[in-house]
Amino acid sequence: MDNLNQEREHLSVIDRYCENCNEETILKMANILKILGEPSRMKIVLALSYGELCVDHIVKCVNLSQSSVSHQLRILKDNQIIKFRKEKQNVIYYLYDDHIMEIINLVREHVEE
Amino acid sequence: MDNLNQEREHLSVIDRYCENCNEETILKMANILKILGEPSRMKIVLALSYGELCVDHIVKCVNLSQSSVSHQLRILKDNQIIKFRKEKQNVIYYLYDDHIMEIINLVREHVEE
DNA sequence: TGTAAATATGAACAAGCGTTCATATAATAA
DNA sequence: TTATTATATGAACGCTTGTTCATATTTACA
After folding, report:
1. Are A58 and A83 in a shared domain?
2. Which 71-90 residues of chain B approach strand D with CB closer than 7 Å?
3. Same domain, A70 and A105
4. Do A74 and A48 share a structural domain?
5. Long-range contacts of A107-110 (CB under 8 A, 24+ apart)
6. What's the average pLDDT block by block, 10 residues per block, for chain A (113 residues)?
7. pLDDT tens across B7-16, in order?
8. N or C: which end of chain A has fewer CB within 10 A?
9. Domain that holds residue A97
10. Does B111 lie in the same domain as B73?
11. Given an 8 Å threshold on Cβ–Cβ distance, is A47 in contact with B12?
């Protein structure tokens, strides 16, 4: 491909990027991945991918301090990665929706190759 | 569901987590998402999702300093999110493989709902 | 060979953030 | 009501990391 054609190609790439990718969407996309992209949170989410759990069980499962787990649950909840319901003296957390599972599974595939 | 049954359920969730999620895999999964979960890098990857670009064009596209882009390209390259080839005095970057696109698209869907 | 253009790199600084520690709150049971 | 269990929260500390600035390197071309 000659210089001029490559230049044209690149310009059309830039155009498509500018048309389709607004700042706000980019920030939202990066944010979800940032939230999931932290080992402690990933552990919690992976645990919940097998079923709902109360806080105490999450703590035992992922082997982190109760306080740390609680802080991370808050962040996951605030970013709509998980939801919770109260039941007796327990708070039971579970994944927000199937999208989270899909993303997790895709990343798992990518890693396991 | 009574207490005992719930306890049993939770224990089986914990078991499945422990069987299937080894530390190394979790760290790898979190790492990829951490790399993508940063606005500057997300911008670069999104730009490249429309086609390959040389560094200078990436700089113009995502509106970051040349140095910053270069640093981030290195991180993306080291983590196998992108590849490059040299052509004349230019270095042309492009996505490493289709998995990256799939992840990006899934996240985009999630955000756009 | 020397100059300009394109890209990479290293050090330093600031900001973000995960963990810990101590403590608060909520809910149940006695 | 009091004690106990379960969970949440706030402050502080330390580490990580993205950006900038200055500069090095590489390649093409005159």
Report:
1. yes
2. 71-72, 75, 86, 88-89
3. yes
4. yes
5. A107/B29, A107/B32, A107/B33, A107/B103, A108/B25, A108/B29, A109/B99, A110/B32, A110/B99, A110/B103
6. 82 94 96 98 97 97 97 98 94 96 94 86
7. 899 999 999 9
8. C
9. 38-113
10. yes
11. no
